[in-house]
UniProtKB/TrEMBL annotation:
SUPFAM superfamilies: C-terminal effector domain of the bipartite response regulators, Pheromone-binding domain of LuxR-like quorum-sensing transcription factors. GO terms for molecular function: DNA binding. Residues 185-250 form the HTH luxR-type domain. InterPro entries: Sig_transdc_resp-reg_C-effctor, TF_LuxR_autoind-bd_dom, TF_LuxR_autoind-bd_dom_sf, Tscrpt_reg_LuxR_C, WH-like_DNA-bd_sf. SMART domains: HTH_LUXR. This is Response regulator.
Length: 254
């Protein structure tokens, strides 16, 4: 599948005054060819946003699991040994969702969830989390998570300021991870232009038309042209149908 590159502003400034070189991060992510490269970029993202942890975890089409991130190795090993994958409220809750979720909205009321949370906090996992679920065209499932230790008010300010950038990074991580699948078949012929892919992808992950136009640095009229062109190529009745067909064909990944 032909790769497109979203036109982004070079830097992003958060409420605390930090400047994050988002374009530079995404360019390096595009150029990465190894899992070790993904690991280094998670560390770079963590440091750029000045938060405690970044984690990317995915299950490929064959059911194999992979991950990279900044959690302590002791916690990662304990997570595997305790079989927390079966009881982790983040995994359970996000698997049932398509949109980003703040951990406070998940169900932590069960005994197993409380045990898990206590253990996680004891091993350096922060009390705040924000996870973005992503699905691939062949049954892949992934989570991109940011994690920190702070007050509810500070975390709400952070996620409101950076949700769009985090969603973009999540999908760039996932696009790169799909390239690493060992038995990936030949890429499908591309029938959509890069701009049409960008427009449908952003609409699919929840952006409004105004937000899509702003992100792509185009007018809403030009955006309508791209959407109508994609709809015609996909034989779709409306924009929602176009997004569904693009997903099923593997032209976009959400």
């Amino acid at each position: 599948m032909q790769r497109s590159r979203l036109s982004l502003m070079t830097t992003v400034r958060d409420p605390m005054g930090k400047t994050v070189d988002l374009d530079g991060i995404l360019e390096d992510l595009d150029a990465t060819t190894t899992l070790e490269g993904l690991q280094k970029i998670t560390e770079r993202v963590r440091d750029a946003f000045e938060i405690d942890h970044i984690v990317y975890h995915w299950v490929d089409s064959a059911g194999e699991q992979y991950g990279c991130g900044t959690y302590d190795d002791v916690w990662v090993q304990r997570y595997l040994e305790q079989g927390y994958l079966r009881t982790d409220p983040v995994i359970i809750g996000c698997y049932q969702r398509f949109h980003p979720v703040d951990w406070k909205r998940l169900d932590w009321s069960t005994k197993s969830a409380r045990i898990f949370l206590k253990d996680a906090l004891a091993h350096g996992v922060g009390n705040q989390g924000y996870s973005i679920p992503i699905r691939g065209p062949n049954g892949q499932f992934a989570l991109f998570t940011v994690n920190h230790n702070c007050s509810d008010e500070d975390w709400e300010e952070f996620t409101e300021a950076h949700s769009r950038e985090l969603i973009l990074m999540a999908h760039y991580f996932n696009r790169k991870a799909l390239e690493f699948e060992p038995d990936r078949g030949p890429e499908q012929a591309q029938t959509l232009s890069p701009r049409e892919i960008d427009a449908l992808t952003l609409l699919a992950i929840g952006y409004s038309r105004a937000q899509v136009a702003q992100t792509l640095s185009i007018s809403e009229h030009t955006l309508r042209v791209y959407i109508e062109s994609a709809r015609f190529k996909l034989g779709a009745l409306n924009t929602t149908h176009a997004i569904a067909r693009a997903l099923s064909c593997g032209f976009i990944v959400v």
